């Protein structure tokens, strides 16, 4: 259900509207898709519980995101890179995701996704003999990266920040959630829900449309 009370007339007036072009940016893991890809890789590597524990603490803001990612990737050392195809076929779009995207596109909105780096990072981890090195190469998408992506995309498209929506479940999504015209913590960790202006605790992304009139 959507929380932060049912929007009244006054609060609805300040939220983004479908009557004008806008921009929605959402996180990937556990938001656009139901799974955490790094956790799925952990299961394949036989260290699923260890990685899932670190993931939960990082997403709740208890651990530095960069260090948490490096620690999890280190546990994947030796995993064949062919596992990415297997994991890809195990992930699912979150219920309502495609309805949300299609509806926004029909109203001349743009939709972007920002990932904590898992897809992009692990794709660059290939080393000799086609195995993971256990080290992170390249830039990590942090909370600041996500915030700057939201702002940069809105500026590039000529969209006022008041006409933006940000959706995510982790602590690294909070800056963009606070910066957007509508920021929603989606089935998020407790500390994220406490800090976010709006919360959606039903796994149906189409419910975001309830706020966009």
| H and E string | EHEHHHHHHEHHEHEHE
Give the termini distance in whole angstroms: 18 Å
Average pLDDT rating: 82
Number of helices: 11
Question: Over all CA atoms, what is the radius of gyration?
Answer: 18 Å
Q: Could you tell me the strand content as a percent range? A: 5-15%
General shape: globular
DSSP strand tally? 6
User: Could you estimate the helical fraction of the residues in percent?
Assistant: 40-55%
Class per helix and strand makeup:
alpha/beta
> Spans of 5+ residues with little confidence (pLDDT < 50)?
4-11, 120-128
Going across the biggest sheet, name each strand in turn: 1-6-5-4-2-3
The major pleated sheet works out as: 6 strands, mixed
How would you characterize this protein structure?
The protein is an alpha/beta fold. Helix content is 42%, strand content 12%. It is built from eleven helices and six strands. It has helices at residues 9-13, 28-32, 37-45, 48-59, 65-74, 83-88, 97-106, 118-122, 143-157, 174-179, 190-195; strands at 2-3, 23-27, 110-114, 164-168, 182-186, 198-200. It has a six-stranded mixed β-sheet, with helices on both faces. Strand 4, helix 10 and strand 5 form a beta-alpha-beta unit. Helix 3 (37-45) runs antiparallel to helix 4 and helix 4 packs antiparallel against helix 5 (65-74). The protein starts with a strand and ends in a 13-residue tail after the last strand.
What is the topological layout?
Layout: E1 2-3, H1 9-13, E2 23-27, H2 28-32, H3 37-45, H4 48-59, H5 65-74, H6 83-88, H7 97-106, E3 110-114, H8 118-122, H9 143-157, E4 164-168, H10 174-179, E5 182-186, H11 190-195, E6 198-200
Parallel strand pairs: 2-3, 2-4, 4-5, 5-6
Antiparallel strand pairs: 1-6
């Amino acid at each position: 259900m959507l929380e932060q009370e049912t929007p009244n007339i006054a609060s609805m007036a300040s939220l983004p509207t479908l009557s004008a072009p806008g921009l929605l940016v959402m996180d990937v893991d556990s938001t656009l898709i139901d799974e955490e890809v790094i956790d799925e890789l952990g299961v394949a590597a036989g260290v699923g519980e260890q990685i899932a524990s670190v993931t939960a603490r990082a997403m709740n803001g208890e651990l530095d995101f960069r260090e948490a990612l490096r620690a999890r990737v280190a546990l994947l050392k030796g995993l064949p890179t062919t596992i990415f195809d297997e994991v890809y076929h195990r992930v699912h779009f979150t219920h309502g995701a495609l309805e949300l995207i299609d509806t926004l596109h029909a109203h001349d909105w743009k939709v972007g996704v920002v990932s904590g780096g898992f897809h992009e990072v692990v794709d660059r981890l290939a080393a000799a003999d086609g195995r993971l090195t256990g080290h992170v190469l390249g830039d990590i998408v942090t909370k600041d990266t996500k915030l700057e992506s939201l702002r940069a995309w809105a500026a590039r498209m000529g969209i006022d920040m008041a006409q933006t929506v940000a959706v995510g479940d982790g602590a690294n999504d909070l800056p963009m959630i606070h910066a957007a015209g509508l920021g929603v913590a989606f089935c998020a960790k407790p500390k994220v829900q406490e800090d976010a202006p709006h919360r959606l605790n039903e796994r149906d992304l189409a419910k975001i449309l309830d706020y966009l009139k």
